[in-house]
Design a protein that fits this description.
- By secondary structure, this protein is mainly alpha-helical.
- The chain has a domain at about 10-105: Arc Repressor Mutant, subunit A (Orthogonal Bundle).
- The protein has helices at about 5, 10-30, 35-45, 50-60, 65-75, 95-105, 110-115, 120-140, and strands at about 50, 80-85, 90-95.
- A 3-stranded antiparallel beta sheet has the order 1-3-2.
- The longest helix has 22 residues, at about 120-140.
């Protein structure tokens, strides 16, 4: 084991992220989704009709990354993109019936991943708060 590597906070964050994604992967495969596609749908389940720009902000993705995701989800029949009647420059993203129906199938996923993490609910909450604090600080430091 490389002690210097394992003392790096960034490596711990990277490793934890990969481990969480590995737990999600088979669960999401049952739904025909990748993890990034699942994240897009999570935003839309709360805010159907979001603009592409708002989705990008919420997911912290640029349009070059987000557009192919949306295209694949649209091809799968889970969402549709339309130009806004009020402003044709604005592209809105709406769930289809199939996209909305997938929400119920996805409801148990976060709980299953939380259980796999082996943490108590309060520990998970504290971890989320700590990670949010670290993210804000690192963004600030990066300028």
């Amino acid at each position: 084991m490389n002690d210097a590597l394992h003392r790096q906070v960034c490596f711990s964050l990277y490793s934890a992220s990969r481990a969480a994604t590995a737990v999600y992967r088979p669960l999401l495969e049952e739904l025909g989704l990748t993890y990034p596609q699942y994240l897009v749908l999570m935003v839309l389940w709360e805010q159907d009709g979001s603009s592409v720009r708002d989705l990008g902000r919420a997911l912290e993705l640029d349009s070059g990354t987000l557009s192919p995701l949306l295209k694949r989800l649209e091809s799968a029949g889970l969402l549709r993109r339309t130009r806004s009647a009020a402003d044709e420059r604005r592209v809105e993203v709406h769930l289809t019936e199939d996209g909305r129906a997938l929400q119920e199938k996805a409801l148990p996923l976060p709980q299953r991943v939380a259980e796999a993490a082996g943490l108590e609910p309060q520990e998970l909450h504290t971890l989320q708060e700590t990670l949010a604090k670290v993210t804000r600080a690192l963004r600030s430091a990066a300028g």
